[in-house]
Amino acid sequence: MKIESCLTQTFCRLMLTALPVACLATVLCLADCVAEEAAKAEIPAWAKVSKEQIAAAQKLGIPVAFANRVGVKLVLVPSGEFLMGSAEDEVGR
Fold this sequence. Notes:
The chain is mainly alpha-helical. It has helices at 2-40, 51-60, and strands at residues 65-67, 73-75.
């Protein structure tokens, strides 16, 4: 009875240490596969994208443009900065 308990505890410790590493390796492998497929993905004919959008998509490992199941078309907008609003001297402000 004591040996079985010891073996069970050892097995549980092994699973708690080895399983997360195996799961992490699997996740990383899947992420690499997704990134490779995204890089190979063709740009849809309807998408008008710039070189910057394509570069950002490749860096992130995602498609630059795609349509979801409902048919909504989505295009990657790279991060950046912009000035929002209108000039103080603009008529009608």
